[in-house]
Design goal:
heterodimer, A: 543 residues, alpha/beta, Rossmann fold, six-stranded mixed sheet, four-stranded parallel sheet, 23 helices, 14 strands, globular, B: 453 residues, 3 domains, five-stranded parallel sheet, 17 helices
Chain lengths: 543, 453
Amino acid sequence: MHQGSDEKREHGPDPAQFVEEVVRDYPAKVARKRLRHIVPVSPDGQCEIQANVRTIPGIITQRGCCYAGCKGVVIGPIADMVHIVHGPIGCSYYTWMTRRNQAKPREDGQYYLDYCFSTDMQEDAIVFGGEKKLKAAIREAHEIFRPKAISIHATCPAGLIGDDVVRVGDEMSKELGIPVFGFACEGYKGVSQSAGHHIANNGLFKHVVGRKDIPPDGYAVNMLGEYNIGGDAWEIERILNRCGISILSTFSGNGSFDEIARSHTANLNIIQCHRSINYMAEMMETKFGVPWLKGNFIGIKATSKTLWKIARFFEDPALTQRIEAVIMEEEAQAGVEIAPYRGRLAGKTVALFVGGSRAHHYQDLFKDLGMKVIAAGYEFAHRDDYEGRDVLPFLKVDADSQNIEELKVDKDPERYRPRIDDEKRKRLMAEGVISTYGGMMPEMDKGAVVIDDISHHELEKLIERFKPDLICSGIKDKYVIEKWGIPSKQLHNYDYGGPYAGYLGAVNFARDIDMRVNGPAWGFITPPWKKKPILEAAFGAAA
Amino acid sequence: MNRELEHATSTTNACKLCKPMGACLAFRGIEGAVPFLHGSQGCATYMRRYIISHFNEPMDIASSSLGEKHAIYGGGPNFRLGVKNVTEKYRPSLIGVATTCLTETIGDDVAGFVGEIRKKAGRVDGGPSIVHVLTPSYGGTHMEGFHAAVRATVEQLAEGGERGDRINMLPGFVSPADIRYLKEVLADFGAEATILPDLSDTLDGPALREYRKLPAGGTSIREIRSMGGSRATIEFGRTLEAHRTAGAFLAERFQVPNHRIGLPVGIRETDRFFAVIEDLSGRPTPERHAAERGRLVDSLVDGHKYIFGLRAVVYGEEDLVAGIVSSLAEFGVRPVLCASGGESGLLAGAVHALTEGLVDEPPIVRQGADFFDIGEEAEDLSPDIIIGHSKGYHLARRLGIPLLRVGFPIHDRIGGQRIVHLGYRGAQWLFDSLVNTVIAGRQASSPVGYGYY
């Protein structure tokens, strides 16, 4: 039904030529800059790309701010804490459950996700300072809700007028006798929300992780960088539980302060979103000896592969057997269920521009569906997410990243406990099981185009030239894409669907993609009276 | 009746959005305009996200993407570069610049920046008009931002000239469907009108095969320029700051008579609106609108038995709240609590004027309220229904009563942009929706279940 996709797949535009065309319309300086962010995947998969640098003013970007990364993404989903935004009203309003990070209350009943607290800064605070009001707001929240902990988040004006949320946090901790901690995540810091992720990691590590030494029973892992959009974390938990593995804590979807407080006692950290949480994995390993592995629970094969990695890490025959059985059963079931959708979707082309991980993760799921990824890019990722962690030693720290604190972390003299011996560690690293992430680009088809922090103009050019059958993105460009008559799937909030993780999620996704791509509406866009003259003209030309 | 709350320190679940967002919405209703936020890029991203979740339409907002360095040394260079890039990429007819907390706090002189750009460009190169408005979020709600942007647009673009026959229509922040309705009414009166802003197409466009960077529709710059020569202005809003509106400016600067009336929501407010157009056009209300009013009143007679005496909580933007409350009073529903995050100081007076004589007990009016306050108060009032935007969902869920969605933002139902709130048609929609919501509730909770109601 969609515009002649068969033809274009065979005669798709030449990637190098496409790149040239895209930047042609830019002023020379902008063109030079953007050229380093738009890279066709080379035959050896070894490509260099520019990422995590400032967005050019006036170019419509999908990126958010530091505050968004800290409060909106990492800290906000922790459900049993009160999160107070110190700033004007908009900042807090815009993070009021907009990401669909779901959570269930635990036994103690503390659950504040429905709330959105703000000091609602007014002009007088700008002139006289807002710390007094912030403290009063914290006292008030404590008085009303008696939460176990409170976080404070700075916004642009808070930082500019010199309000120190970190100090206020320390003072209020002493006064109230509960953990209160501030995040200096003013919106103007860093180049995107990525800076906020880092600040959030630091704060959680300093103030929460390691607070409670309650060792788990059996195989217990933390899920890092899983935000439980649409219930993803629960599907992951279902699968792991079936294998006999429990999730000790999740950072931070369905997150709980108490669980994060004891997360350092886990056997293993599994990283889902590398971009937003890799700092935490490294710090926990250094201080407490918890190894990490990069997993991906998006896609049937990817989920199985992740489970295999976990089996190889634990090297327990009984566990491996259970994992094997779960994989066999779940793969077979999911395979049967996606088959009809796959039949209608296989061979279709897709482009993904989203997040700092999802543009990579979902490529695995599209492979399950037989769809071909022709272009991809992240919104706020760094080079290691594109090229793999091997590139880390070569990254230059620019002025924007310099200002984000790197915590100095040492071995905890009492609590450091290596989970595996050195020899096994080396072996697992060499086998690519732990401490590695290869990034997105090496796994992509040659000739696919990678575009970092894509602008509207670039997206339009891509649509014009490639005419993909589907573009995955976020809400901000979804409707632009659909005005081109091209179906778009939101991979930030899932178009309010999900879960899409794990085996059951893959089936949900296949169904949702099928209805989006093959739904009848696309066929009605051009009204009959507009179709007619074209037909006549065509006949005329033939005659 | 106007109980000023013992104000809690923290705003918990706000009932207002931020000022620059309102400005961006207003600019979106100008033909070929690109809203531009001078500040951190997160502002543009969040506001776009929010606006899009209501309208399900593209909404571009450019940003000067300031970082830490600019917060210290000023955002001038980024601003100029941003304007240049938007100009080259979009070829807009207008760039609507709104400031943010960041740039207001560091004291960037946006008027100065704009002046420089204007001077450099002159009029010759056909570059975009630039309108700027100061909208720090710590100085008002999204509604103040919206009205300030409309005022700034008129202030910076409107010219005088020979008095023409046109009418300026300043509707405030209403839905695209509302604007389409207004156009229909004005056309039926044979009145030529400039509606500013006009979101009817720009935020509710058709499905296409080829995207247009700048959506079709919106008030044209040419029309805005000639607003100083119109014969009259009609401006909606009982809670506007009288001397700071666009209508007030046009009256003062160009002596265009300003007719400020309430948002025409409900029967009497719409009657007033029609009276003004009758006056201005010299024509009687066209038959089809008279008939619409007649059918509305007839339906009230038919349906009042379902909702008479019902107790309602209403919240949202002040003028919309006033209009809805007025309608409810006409329907025989008892508004028990009217709340808004806005703080014009005028809501209580408006509600009082609009309910007087129709309700036994005037409703409690709370300005500067958040959903924590509204929830606390509502629990004591045992309401039957809540009317407002999507943010009241949690309250409705907690109280176990229905929420009828009106206004903005609506992100848990489809079609917020197609709701007609205004006129007899809007009142009809409200009445029918209200009655049907109540009937559906009774059917669902009935132990027997009736198919006739």
